[in-house]
## 1
Amino acid sequence: MNTAPQIQALEAAQIRKDIPEFRNGDTVRVHYKIVEGDKERVQIFQGLVIKQHRNGARSTFTVRKISFNVGVERIFPLYSPRIDKIEITGKGVVRRSRLFYLRELQGKAARLRDQKDA
């Protein structure tokens, strides 16, 4: 009993084509649908992509932002139907795949170089 092709077919149906290509170090705006009671609204979470986990339909990415001098990180499933859209607002130049070192930095030290500056 080979279930791998069945799982692959199921995952292939879940993958969305409208997700833009982005990398670690990019600044993104994630438009995420929030359900409150019987109403639904779109909440925007803007921040820096510090991590990506690429695993087909189970791919995730982590976005970090500073809100009222407190670091906030949120993990989004990449192909979630709750994601309305993803906008790329800036491209950063990084040489690491995980940007966890930004957690200890504050203010101007936590900035990344832009691709247009490099």
## 2
Amino acid sequence: MKTVKIKDEFIKLGQAMKLGGMVGSGVEAKIVIQGGEVTLNGKTELQRGKKLHNGDVVSYNGETIQISQ
């Protein structure tokens, strides 16, 4: 599991996926999120702009990242 460090209180899901290397672009993030392929803390997440906080776990395509401050 990779860790994505954030400086602010939150990061948006699409941005976290890009930083974690799960997707190559915001457009790709939008497609896979809206396609129901991404889970947040074990539940399918469909909002690209969903705010992630310290400790949240994102999974997609066999890869997992955790948000850390």
## 3
Amino acid sequence: MVTDPIADYLTRIRNAVKANHRIVEIPASNLKKGITKILFDKGYILNYKFEDEVKPGIIKIALKYHPVTKTPAIRDITRISKPGLRKFCGVEELPRVLNGLGIAIISTSKGLITDKEARELKVGGEIVCFVS
């Protein structure tokens, strides 16, 4: 049994990037699907597919690499709020990742959004992870 499924999700992506894999398969949940959609919208992954016909569902993620230099689009992906220590912040304390070059994924009352969207909507929430 996994005690922190989001940390497991991020670790699978991190390990696949370090091993230069093209596709990674991850057990699905609604929170993981939301994070995957944000990573796709912001250009950190090439594509994704939700396979819900099997229980539990599976998320297939196609990782993105530079075509010439083969460097990955995801350089670092870090879990911030953990089950043992939750990290919450208001709109005034929202973090900036790499001075705005990366994103922070925030779980708010409006759903999963990035730090930039949270500033525009003027909402705070739980900091799920940093991506750069």
